[in-house]
Design a protein that fits this description.
The complex is a heterodimer. Chain A has strands spanning about 5, 10, 20-25, 35-40, 45-50, 60, 70-75, 80-85, 90-100, 110-115, 120. Chain A is mainly beta. In chain A, the strands form 2 sheets. In chain A, strands 2, 4, 5, 6, 9, 10 and 11 form a 7-stranded mixed beta sheet that branches. Chain A has a 4-stranded antiparallel beta sheet with strand order 1-3-8-7, with no helix packed on it. In chain A, strand 7 (about 70-75) and strand 8 (about 80-85) form a beta hairpin. The relative contact order of chain A is 0.30. The model of chain A has no long low-confidence stretch (mean pLDDT about 95). Chain B contains no helices and 9 strands. The chains are: A mainly beta, B mainly beta. The interface of A and B includes residues 45, 47, 108, 111 and 113 of A.
């Protein structure tokens, strides 16, 4: 059974940093691209960042580019999101999501599995 | 990158069919067959119900179906049931620098 467990969410002041982790199990972690998706309270889903299976390719939403860094440790089956210079508008539940297989050569075409999320609150 | 456009809410009676639209551009919905749909119940994580426009994952009811025409994708729920009450989001791979985009979300109410 595929499982992903996020951790690291907390209450943090504006301008500070936080690192989220997502430990995955039930599949060959290094074979799949992974992503972070967030959802502000009462709002819709927002894609945040994605990373290829080897970790060599990374992608970011314009809203977090230059502030957030996605990475992975395939030896630990763990995905990370380093969040710097946090703002109030970064307040959200952050979900770890596993992309589907590389159908048709695209490894980033849909989110097959989701974690339960971790809450990040940015407030003074 | 702007979000894909969905109606804020759609409602129907048990047993009826409803359709949710998802409008993007030629850079996302219209340019690729990589539209997917997600169901989210309150307080829960999203769940994949349709991928690659019209494919259903194993275990998802065949009452859910997807299609696409031009820059607009659609999700149809037939034989509406009370457990279908949830928020639904479309999404698409995009050729812009941001890689991926979600829809604005649609709240489905079963009357």
């Amino acid at each position: 059974e595929v499982q992903m467990l996020e951790s690291g969410g907390a209450l943090v002041q504006p301008g500070k940093s936080l690192r989220l982790s997502c430990v995955a199990s039930g599949f060959t972690f290094s074979s799949y691209a992974m992503s972070w998706v967030r959802q502000a309270p009462g709002k819709g889903l927002e894609w945040v960042s994605g990373i290829g299976g080897s970790g060599g390719n990374t992608y970011y939403a314009d809203s977090v580019k230059g502030r957030f860094t996605i990475s992975r440790d395939n030896s630990k089956n763990t995905l990370y999101l380093q969040m710097n210079s946090l703002r109030a508008e970064d307040t959200a539940v952050y979900y770890c999501a596993k992309f589907g297989d590389c159908s048709g050569g695209n490894c980033y075409s849909y989110f097959q599995h989701w974690g339960q999320g971790t809450l990040v609150t940015v407030s003074s | 990158q702007s979000a894909l456009t969905q109606p804020a809410s759609v409602s129907g009676s048990p047993g009826q069919s409803i359709t949710i639209s998802c409008t993007g551009t030629s850079s996302d919905v219209g340019g690729y067959n990589y539209v997917s749909w997600y169901q989210q119940h309150p307080g829960k994580a999203p769940k994949l119900i349709i991928y690659h426009v019209s494919y259903r994952p194993s275990g998802v009811s065949n009452r859910f179906s997807g299609s696409k025409s031009g820059n607009t994708a659609s999700l149809t729920i037939s034989g509406l049931q009370t457990e279908d009450e949830a928020d639904y989001y479309c999404s698409s791979f995009t050729s812009t620098t941001t890689l991926y985009v979600f829809g604005t979300g649609t709240e489905v109410t079963v009357l």
